[in-house]
């Protein structure tokens, strides 16, 4: 009775309970603060707005004007033949598969269009049409040139010489741009996958032709009356997801690294407590580092610092939300302000002088929250504007990048004196080490001389490291903020599974203190702890933003290349996870993990439960086709245990399920062998 009464009262107030909403104390404080100030956030809206039960099962079709056709599961489940169908006769499998691959299309489009924007800036930098950007990492330029088939040397009078770097850069930019819309051929980066994987994609008919085409074809195939076989629909979904992971996302990562520098381990801090009461706080939110790189450069100038001081502030504090945060963290050590679900809370501190947003994962409600404070909310991208009239739009143009950034930073500084509401910045923040990648893992685990993945492989073979977990993805307000992320990751590292993380999972782990080498002793099993302590790395390696999941793919390819752990990614003792996913991008990422041979578990929900045959196809039959498959597990500990069970199964298949040291064969041993 008491519980019923409490429930009624709560729904009458329509407010979130901060302790139930998040595990993060700083966020709890700010949710409570929002209630004191009468400001509504996503946490409150989640209490009042229930998700559509049919949509969450994936069986609502709204692809034509005769619907929406909703095919709810019968109460007692399906008995006998499943006779449900839409007006046109579409079965639950067709509808769920159409919806699923449209999500892949949305996610692949978002990542890949981001990649295209970077490629455009890259090309204009290579052609010297802008002063703001230049090639920073020449080593990576050469590596990428080779992958794109760009000559890096020239023959002069029979002598092979290094080709001019500017010429290489222009051709890399042109070849990269071509990957989005070339008329013939196949995605060039597909060959960066292990050879058996590439051959498998070819055999299955899912090698992407170009990035845009695969996305467009999904929209065509899912139009009413086109593809009506869930298996054939998923074939196209697979092709588009590969075009994202091994195409648009990978190109975005590579070109960003060449332009802005390949990340190397760097120390910083994370959580709302990084904001400073006596400084101008600029929070950068979104995804494309093309803009945020310039803001970082401008905000760190003496001119801007002095200007801030002249306005009564002690300096400028930059921080980031979402994947922009990860981008500027991994290259400059700019602190993380928070995850996706903390974006409104950053403004509610009352200390956010400007929030600058570009694309993806930006709540429209930011405008309503900003209205309650002095905060300037600035949109910067032509494809991502907001209708509310308190939002400023300063369109960012790479040809005037520094000017635009100067304008934005000045606006924030000028706004410092307008703070009105009482400022309340939570104190919580954690120290972190971020900025890992394919190259730094090679360095840290291989040593400066060996510089390879052999040491990592050795430690997996000898059992100190049980396996690799790629844990990524969003926050989802339908589940307790960061709870799934942290419980999954802690269970993995406790069982000696090293974690590679990106996106909002990386930020959640940062806030929890898991991105420090010292955390190994506290949270890891003895084997992983020993490795981390010996080489001085955290047990959870921050590999960047969501497009940087491509770094996880390439790291997996390197592990295969180093030998001893099978011939393909699907042989590795590895598993993927997105405990709190919510975006279409996460579905595309999940599917390119699966198509690359990785067992991938999602938390919260998956829109497939209303179509049991289609669900079985993704969860079981996909393994026979690609060596990787989907799974759903809501309980975080069980979620991690499923990953560990899969890792153990792979260890057994490789014959490395018994812990053993690698025995070096010396001369004496050789003689003994020869004598036998
Ligand atoms: O691309 S993890 S909530 S921020 S979608 Fe968005 Fe999800 Fe965060 Fe980055 Ni990725």
Write up what this structure looks like.
With 676 residues, the chain is an alpha/beta fold. A six-stranded parallel β-sheet has the order 8-7-6-9-10-11. Strands 15-14-13-16-17-18 form a six-stranded parallel β-sheet, sandwiched between helices. Helix 6 packs antiparallel against helix 8, helix 7 packs antiparallel against helix 11 (230-260) and helix 10 runs antiparallel to helix 11. FE(4)-NI(1)-S(5) CLUSTER with Oxygen binds at residues 287, 322-323, 340, 361, 473-474, 503-504, 545-546, 583, 585-586.
Low-confidence stretches: none
The proportion of strand residues reads 5-15%
Q: Trace the largest sheet across and list its strands.
A: 8-7-6-9-10-11
The dominant shape is globular
- Note the gap between the termini: 80 Å
- Helix and strand content put the structural class at alpha/beta
Q: Helical stretch count?
A: 28
List of distinct ligands in this structure? FE(4)-NI(1)-S(5) CLUSTER with Oxygen
What Rg do the Cα atoms give? Answer: 25 Å
Q: Let me know the largest β-sheet.
A: 6 strands, parallel
Q: What is the averaged pLDDT score?
A: 94
DSSP, total strands: 18
Q: Give the fraction of residues assigned to helices.
A: 40-55%
């Amino acid at each position: 009775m008491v519980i019923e009464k409490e429930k009624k009262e709560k729904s009458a107030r329509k407010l979130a309970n901060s302790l139930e909403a998040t595990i993060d104390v700083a966020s709890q404080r700010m949710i409570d603060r929002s209630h004191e100030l009468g400001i509504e956030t996503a946490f409150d809206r989640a209490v009042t707005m229930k998700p559509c039960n049919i949509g969450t099962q994936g069986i609502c079709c709204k692809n034509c004007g005769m619907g929406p056709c909703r095919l709810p599961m019968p109460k007692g489940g399906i008995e006998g033949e499943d006779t449900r169908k839409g007006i046109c006769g579409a079965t639950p499998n067709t509808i769920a598969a159409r919806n699923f691959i449209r999500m892949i299309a949305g996610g692949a489009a978002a990542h890949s269009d981001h990649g295209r924007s970077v490629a455009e800036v890259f090309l204009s930098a290579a052609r010297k049409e802008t002063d703001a950007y230049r090639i920073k990492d020449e080593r990576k330029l050469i590596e990428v040139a080779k992958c794109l088939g760009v000559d890096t040397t020239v023959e002069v009078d029979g002598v092979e010489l290094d080709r001019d770097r500017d010429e290489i850069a222009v051709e890399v930019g042109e070849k990269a741009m071509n990957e989005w819309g070339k008329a013939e051929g196949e995605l060039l980066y597909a060959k960066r996958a292990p050879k058996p994987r590439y051959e498998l994609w070819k055999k299955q008919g899912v090698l992407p032709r170009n990035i845009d085409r695969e996305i467009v074809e999904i929209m065509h195939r899912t139009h009413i009356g086109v593809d009506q076989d869930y298996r054939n629909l998923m074939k196209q979904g697979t092709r588009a997801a590969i075009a994202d992971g091994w195409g648009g996302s990978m190109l975005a990562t590579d070109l960003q690294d060449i332009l802005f520098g390949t990340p190397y381990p760097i120390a910083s801090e994370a959580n709302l407590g990084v904001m400073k009461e006596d400084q101008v706080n600029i929070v950068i939110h979104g995804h494309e580092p093309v803009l945020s790189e310039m803001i970082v450069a401008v905000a760190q100038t003496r001119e801007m610092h002095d200007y801030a001081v002249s306005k009564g502030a002690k300096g400028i504090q930059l921080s980031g939300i979402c994947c922009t945060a990860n981008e500027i963290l991994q290259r400059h050590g700019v602190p993380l302000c928070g995850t996706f679900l903390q974006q409104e809370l950053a403004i509610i501190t009352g200390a956010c002088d400007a929030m600058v947003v570009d694309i993806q994962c930006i709540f429209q409600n930011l405008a309503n929250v900003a209205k309650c404070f002095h905060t300037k909310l600035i949109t910067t991208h032509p494809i991502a504007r907001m209708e509310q009239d308190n939002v400023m739009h300063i369109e960012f143009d790479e040809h005037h990048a520094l000017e635009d950034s100067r304008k934005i930073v000045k606006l924030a500084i000028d706004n410092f004196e307008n703070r009105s509401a009482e400022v309340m910045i939570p104190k919580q923040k954690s120290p972190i080490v971020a900025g890992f990648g394919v190259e730094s893992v090679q360095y840290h685990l291989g040593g400066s001389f060996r510089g390879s993945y052999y040491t990592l492989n050795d430690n997996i073979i000898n059992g100190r490291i049980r396996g690799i977990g790629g844990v990524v993805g969003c926050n989802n307000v339908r589940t307790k903020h960061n709870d799934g992320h942290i419980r999954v990751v802690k269970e993995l590292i406790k069982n000696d599974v090293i974690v590679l993380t990106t996106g909002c999972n990386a930020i959640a782990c940062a806030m929890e203190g898991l991105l420090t080498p010292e955390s190994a002793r506290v949270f890891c099993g003895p084997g992983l702890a020993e490795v981390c302590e010996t080489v001085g790395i955290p047990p959870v390696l921050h590999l960047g933003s969501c497009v940087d999941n491509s770094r996880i793919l390439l790291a997996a390819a390197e592990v295969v290349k180093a030998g001893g752990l099978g011939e393909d990614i699907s042989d590795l003792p590895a598993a993927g996870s997105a405990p709190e996913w919510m975006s279409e991008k996460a579905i595309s990422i999940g599917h390119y993990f699966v198509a690359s041979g990785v067992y991938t578990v999602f938390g919260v929900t998956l829109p497939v439960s209303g179509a049991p045959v289609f669900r079985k196809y993704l969860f079981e039959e996909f393994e026979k086709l690609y060596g990787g498959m989907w799974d759903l597990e809501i309980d975080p500990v069980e979620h991690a245990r499923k990953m560990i069970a899969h890792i153990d199964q792979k260890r057994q298949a490789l014959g490395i399920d018994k812990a053993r040291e690698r025995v070096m064969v010396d001369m004496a041993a050789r003689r003994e062998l020869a004598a036998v």
